Amino acid sequence: xxxxxxxxxxxxxxxxxxxxxxxxxxxxxxxxxxxxxxxxxxxxxxxxxxxxxxxxxxxxxxxxxxxxxxxxxxxxxxxxxxxxxxxxxxxxxxxxxxxxxxxxxxxxxxxxxxxxxxxxxxxxxxxxxxxxxxxxxxxxxxxxxxxxxxxxxxxxxxxxxxxxxxxxxxxxxxx
Length: 175
Hints:
By secondary structure, this protein is of the alpha+beta class. It has helices spanning 9-13, 21-30, 42-48, 60-73, 83-88, 103-106, 117-124, 126-129, 142-152, and strands at residues 4-8, 37-40, 77-79, 97-101, 112-116. The longest helix is centred in the middle third of the chain and has 14 residues, at 60-73.
């Protein structure tokens, strides 16, 4: 199993997919089973992304459901639950949902960026790693977090080895 996720160009540039698109796509790739399905609860997805579940209007549960709904409209799933009804459901659900992934969208797209699991882990744990810095952490994007790590965290000290940074040197691979 590779230690990275290939993020398609469509996911990177389509801002209508909300700002949670890369983290949800990464989660689906990381949790993908041998039969190309992913079973998850919205609470588990929130915990995996180091956030607290919140079912109130406009909060994280609805943002994740909205992103999943938009991914379903773009045919990233062949089978999926009714995300529209889940958006209006105001509860922190631990009920498992199952999606069948559209392999053509998830397997090695022509144009992509690579994010390594080490980088993803660094993004998800950025508050602990940068807590003693003088950087305002309240509103940071994932790409900016990687740039900050590149400049402030000693390369050899994080995870006990040197991290590979693909976002600052971001290039879409043309095939």
